[in-house]
Amino acid sequence: MENPLETILNPRSIVFYGANNNYMKMGSTQLLNILIAGYPGEIFPIHPREDEVQGFKAYKTVLDILPEKDLDFAFIVLPSEAVPKVLEECGQRGIKHAVVVSAGFREMGEIDLRKELLDITDKYGIKFLGPNCFGFFNNYISWDESKEGAINTTWVALNPKKGRVSIASQSGTFMSHVFMYARHKSPIGFNKTISLGNEASIDLVDSLEYLGNDPGTKVIGLYIEEIKRPREFMDVARRIISSKPIVALYVGGTKAGGRAVSSHTGSLAGNDQMFDAMVKQVGIIRAMNLEELLIYCYVLDVCPVPPGDRVCIFTNAGGPGANMADIAERLDIQVPEFSQELQDQLRTGLVSTAQVKNMVDLTFELDISKQYSGLPKKILKSDEVDGMLVYGIFGTTFFKLIEGYDVKAMFPIEEMEAVLFPMLKRYARFPEKYGKPIIASSMLGREDNAVAYLQDLNIPVFEMPYQAVKAFWALTQYRKILEKFKNQQ
Amino acid sequence: MENPLETILNPRSIVFYGANNNYMKMGSTQLLNILIAGYPGEIFPIHPREDEVQGFKAYKTVLDILPEKDLDFAFIVLPSEAVPKVLEECGQRGIKHAVVVSAGFREMGEIDLRKELLDITDKYGIKFLGPNCFGFFNNYISWDESKEGAINTTWVALNPKKGRVSIASQSGTFMSHVFMYARHKSPIGFNKTISLGNEASIDLVDSLEYLGNDPGTKVIGLYIEEIKRPREFMDVARRIISSKPIVALYVGGTKAGGRAVSSHTGSLAGNDQMFDAMVKQVGIIRAMNLEELLIYCYVLDVCPVPPGDRVCIFTNAGGPGANMADIAERLDIQVPEFSQELQDQLRTGLVSTAQVKNMVDLTFELDISKQYSGLPKKILKSDEVDGMLVYGIFGTTFFKLIEGYDVKAMFPIEEMEAVLFPMLKRYARFPEKYGKPIIASSMLGREDNAVAYLQDLNIPVFEMPYQAVKAFWALTQYRKILEKFKNQQ
């Protein structure tokens, strides 16, 4: 049987309940965002009074739509008490898939309304996301090769960068906030995101199974408040982890976290130690906060899995480099002292204050080929490390920000860029060439043009050194998971 | 005796060695940045061949400068072997203060050169920062009320926001990178930063003492690789912490960190457990990475110290709120369930899906007065919490980013802003009014106009929920330190 999420995430048409022409209404914003994102299919707004909604002909009920129209998906943003009636009509019209954004079926103890809802969807075989969810996002909608586009049913009118990270979340809105975050930060590329809500029909396990089979998804992220079917969850996760990593954030394990989530989605809080044991057994990488969830998913998408746990710390500023070395050791990442032979190779041509034992510290070095070509090649080629953690990516934005001076006359910016960018382009291919990740950090952030350039070539450049170390940690975790899996074969 | 840093950080004039008219040279950039920052004093470049450096008359030696000129500070960016001679001349000219950027006195074992340097400075009573340091920054240079300005001797031509955080660092360059970071992130306000280098003359203890007595400095941050005078360090720190918090990042305690710092500044690595015991005894707040150092210093500057450890988690998105609650409990911050009385007060007028037990989750709420006025007042006024952790600050930037639509016709942006900003202004006064901190997070970041507005009114708004929780943790640590201090009186 096809997973119902296939149709929901790639709807050929949308019957939309709850939008009108007032954009300050939640449903209206969600319809608007579907349009802005570039949804390529047909849209049928249902409205009791309006003749037209956001430029589309509106229908009084779904039953008024011409019978030859192929309808198989409804998106519902109505007060909860109105939902059963429209689902009944959807069922009569042959619709088998829905998203129910409406809340209030479970949180406040309205058990009867929830039962009414399920009686109807059971009768008609309707599978749905929700209730109390906030839609989904798909960066690669595809049901006809001529109809490519994205679909965004969330509140935020921004498509994130395309990529291979997909996230299923038991919390609603925040995944859309992530799209804003990704704009001004590191460019994590999303494939699909799913908001699960109260999971009356489609649940976490269904989503995990769907994303596990989805060829567009390389990394799965999960935001978890409660696992209702732990055995099935573990079985499905176990089948997935040999081909794609799973990263999970679980917030329901502490007293405060448990109280927060149990009133939020009406579920009981789980147990932290139990969750921890479960993910360790199955081979899920655990994130402790939203940032870790995003960082781990991001690097697992764009970086090769390192062959081991040994890292070179490579810097042009002592402090951030030493901080990376310190943090690495605390996370059981090895920072081996290089062999005398490799040290001698690296030392050639460096200033006397540079150091090459590992960490490698260039200090002040105008010849950027040392940073982006000569040394990293020697290091990655050697069998002494499995990856590189870099601090200090500086482009030319730095100079351009100087105000009140004739900067172009003072600094050879064009000449620098003519050397820098081709070099960065070759540098960005090293991870693939040597099978070892390069993960960088630079406090200059994406505002700097070299940082942005490398990020866009899939070299992670975080703002903070510790983020790079944690990112490498996630990669080593996945390597260990894969090895354990192989040994069990 | 006056601390020599007083003169170094507020020089009336600068004798500058090592700049010319080629801006790609380190010394030239540093002189340029002194000018860009708005240094109000006189500058005397010394150069063996040039008649003019960056528009200033250049002198062959310091002894060629007219004797009536009041000289008391030299900034030296020369090859190390050239330094003793110029320091000898500075001594003859009566200069008692210097910064020696030049490296290579100790890292590579050039013991004799170091000894030569110290013999000369001892002879003339010259106190200096370095060698192998990268200068300093002072946002409030003051030696004459008519001559206000900043002085920036680092490589980065950007003045950070003015504030009361001062940092002394045994690593050189990275403090200047922080200035770029602060630009695109939360607006930590700096007072002074000092790069210590190899501490041949002025050391960490001198800097700590100076910043402890400095009326402009409210919070002291330290980046530490090694403490050479631990007893004096503890004595000085102990005298300071009752009037201002000290946050310290120490990177030399692990094997990898120790190796990184010992080759970098030529010092021996200390011991992590010893450092930890020391800071706990004295009452220093320990940061484990650069981000924590910056976050802790920032909130200790702009937030009131909370009267206790109980926090309200206040959100409009379940996931980030629950994540904050979970992290808070792991950091021993209490998230108490509210009394029925307070819950009833909060519940009034909220949507049925909202929750008020703590966490408080508004969910989707168009009436922003609930978020910024009614509920926070009731919560902060109650004696049930000591502060608030907030997720979800959204201005109108969000709407303005929509492309290809007549956004102004669709959304009442001006009307929203007319309500929002005055409300935010009053909201930003609550921490002072109630003596309880509000620390927020919003993944929208500073790009969002409400986020930027609150940040500029000294309400911290971090990008990530965990950052807000950690920031609150630092405040509770300082409260405990103050209490311990009071009990010892």
Task: Give an overview in words.
Two copies of one chain form a homodimer. With 489 residues, chain A is of the alpha/beta class. Chain A contains 19 helices and 19 strands. Chain A has helices at 4-9, 26-37, 83-92, 111-124, 174-184, 204-213, 230-240, 255-265, 272-282, 290-302, 318-330, 340-347, 368-381, 397-400, 407-410, 413-427, 430-434, 449-456, 465-488, and strands at 13-17, 42-46, 52-53, 56-57, 74-76, 97-100, 127-129, 136-141, 149-152, 162-169, 190-195, 219-224, 246-250, 285-287, 311-315, 360-361, 387-391, 438-441, 461-462. In chain A, the strands form four sheets. Chain A has a seven-stranded mixed β-sheet, sandwiched between helices. A five-stranded parallel β-sheet of chain A has the order 2-1-5-6-7. In chain A, helix 11 (318-330) packs parallel to helix 19 (465-488). The longest helix of chain A is centred in the last third of the chain and has 24 residues, at 465-488. The two termini of chain A are 28 Å apart. Residues 264-269 of chain A have low confidence and may be disordered. Chains A and B meet through helix 2, helix 5, helix 8 and helix 11 of A and helix 2, helix 5, helix 8 and helix 11 of B.
Model regions low in confidence, pLDDT < 50 over at least 5 residues of chain A = 264-269
Mind telling me the C-alpha Rg of chain A? Answer: 26 Å
> Count the helices of chain A. How many?
19
Name the biggest interface: A-B, 95 and 95 residues
* Main sheet properties of chain A: 7 strands, mixed
Cross-sheet strand order for the largest sheet of chain A: 9-8-11-10-12-13-14
Helix proportion of chain A:
40-55%
Strand content of chain A: 15-25%
Shape of chain A: elongated
